[in-house]
Amino acid sequence: MPVTRFAAINELVRDQAIACGRKPDGVRLIAVSKTVDAKTAYAAFKEGACDFGENRPECLCEKALAVPEANWHFIGNIQSRRIPEIVGSATLIHSLYKPSHADKISSSARALGKIQDVLIEVNVSGETSKGGCRPEDALELVQYSCALPNVRVCGLMTMAPQGDAEVAYACFEQLAALKSDIHGKLNDKYAQSFVELSMGMSEDWREAIRAGSTMVRIGRAIFSETFEDARV
Ligand SMILES: *Cc1c(COP(=O)(O)O)cnc(C)c1O
After folding, report:
1. Which of 9, 92, 142, 143 has the highest count of CB atoms within 10 angstroms of its CB?
2. What does pTM read for this prediction?
3. What is the extent of the structural domain holding 46?
4. 129 within a domain of the structure (yes/no)
């Protein structure tokens, strides 16, 4: 059986939540298994992982079948024609940022008799290489998606620029502020489920938790043999 660092990283995530005055259960660790095979994902499951992230629909479906007891999160770029597959396997879709995709997610979910949980991806940093809607368009997209019959909007997601922890922290704080702002403008019915902030990866999860993240998406720090983190 392959060995991963899931348990060690999970411990560090909980410690960081406590250090930031938060409840340790308030931050969910999503093990991003996109670079490893289903056997390695299963090893992490045995070490306690219940949530996994994938960015390709075919890998999401294959690994979700291999470890059906876990929650499978879709964190990749959405292509319209792959939406039925994604909806078939995803517990939560983190990367919705187009109204046309929201429509298609709702109709695919309806066909499967499910309500699809989604997060709206916001491009806070403005980097053109990143997906996500503009911060000023997020409220409208949240409200549009909330109104669809088979979609539940659970919060926001972002990716920070890499390389500078304080720049990443500022980006996460902006997403947290945007979430509060939108939360305050939603009907109670929709505000109730609009609680998640998916932010933080291998290099910046500490800053994300400090800024209020409820879900960190960590790949290399768990699965890569060559990942080095001076702070671990
Ligand atoms: C790959 C990926 C991650 C994990 O990144 P690491 O740096 O390996 O921790 C998180 N979120 C998204 C959207 C990704 O594509």
Report:
1. 142
2. 0.97
3. 6-223
4. yes
- Domain assignment present for residue 203? The answer is yes
Distance separating alpha carbons of residues 117 and 100, to the nearest angstrom: 16
Asked if residue 64 is part of any domain, the answer here is yes
pLDDT tens for 67-96 read 999 999 999 999 999 999 999 999 999 999
Question: For residue 185, what is the domain's CATH number?
Answer: 3.20.20.10
Q: 75 CB under 6 A from ligand 1?
A: yes
Tens digits of residue pLDDT in 6-44: 999 999 999 999 999 999 999 999 999 999 999 999 999
pLDDT for 232 equals 53
Beta carbon of 158 within 6 Å of any ligand 1 atom: no
Helix (H) or strand (E) holding 88: helix 83-89
Q: Is the CB of 198 under 6 A from ligand 1?
A: no
